[in-house]
Amino acid sequence: LQPRRAAPAPARNVIARIALAILFALGAAPASAESKISLDGVWRGTLGKQAIVACFDGDSGRYYYDKHAHGIDLGREDNGPRFAEGGEPLLDKLPTGYWTVAVEGGQLRGNWSAPVKGKASQPIVAHRVALAHPDAGACDSAEFNAPRMAGVRVDARDATQQGVRVGIGKAVGTEVKRLQLLGSDAPIAAINRELESGFRESLTSAFDCNGIDGPGEYTEDPGIEFANASWLVVRIDGSGYCGGPHPDSWSNFQTFDRRTGRK
Fold first, then answer.
1. What is the pTM of this model?
2. Between the CA atoms of 95, 140, 258 and 154, what dihedral angle is there, to the nearest 10 degrees?
3. CA–CA separation, 59 and 28 (whole Å)
4. What does the pLDDT look like over 61-72, one tens digit per residue?
5. Please, is 149 exposed, middle or buried when counting C-beta atoms within 10 Å of its C-beta (0-12, 13-18, 19+)?
6. What is the dihedral of CA 18, 22, 25, 26, to 10 degrees?
7. Rounded CA separation 158/152 (Å)
8. pLDDT tens-digit readout, 87-109
9. For 59-142, where are the E strands, in sequence order?
10. Could you tell me which of 172, 227, 221 has the C-alpha nearest to residue 195?
11. What is the DSSP code string of 122-191?
12. What distance in Å separates the CA atoms of residue 259 and residue 254, rounded to the nearest whole number?
């Protein structure tokens, strides 16, 4: 019997490349494909031991801790996997931390690290929340904002404005007020739904205005500007300073048909 010869070097190289290709196809390819899954959407989970809700939309995002609900902005750095949180370059305000995250095993996984080297990092683990309206922006969605609305308390009192009985309240811990008409007929219920929707939008703006420092510089104050048997006009005065070169202020008006409740 002739001794078995080893394959020539070129043949061995080809065999090695084929073997590596097979191993990559079986193991590395799925992980690589998964690492490119978009972060876009809403996520619920934990940062360290604290419960959080996060949203991503392209190169930006936001998150909040369940315990205080104030939004903290996230911005991607140099098209990479890391997001800086809370920084304001125009004000020379440095980031308060960094997120390095990716989708692994269907979950959002990674870590939060302090801006100062040497401090311990915290693990981030979250699951994706299905959006009722996938085409809507994740950070404006009910799925992102509803959890922080659940604990909101409103101190309310009854009053009369332009001959209309109303309830006026302020969300505790903010300067955002809520206006509701008193009564239970269908037109009043329709008007109150519109006013409540605006109140919730204003409240999320207040939560996101100053980030972790609180929403104290964002105010909204609605009131009845005009009313007769057919029409109701609501005026909403607001102001805020959320960073940048100057504060802002505004007055918006909404007109309702009192016979139908339509805006």
1. 0.71
2. -50
3. 26
4. 999 999 888 889
5. middle
6. -170
7. 19
8. 665 455 688 899 999 999 999 99
9. 60-65, 72-76, 82-85, 97-104, 107-113, 122-129
10. 221
11. EEEEEEEEPPSSTTS-GGGSHHHHHHHHTT--EEEEEEEETTEEEEEEEETTSEEEEEEE---SHHHHHH
12. 15
Look at the chain and count its residues: 263
Alpha carbons 49 and 83: distance in angstroms, whole number: 20
**Beta carbons of 52 and 46 less than 8 angstroms apart:** yes
Q: Is the dihedral of CA 114, 58, 54, 124 positive or negative?
A: negative
Query: Which residue in this structure is represented by tokens 């980031």?
Result: 95
Bridge partners for 236 per DSSP: 222, 252
Which two three-digit tokens encode residue 22? 């097979």
CA dist 143 and 118 (Å) reads 36
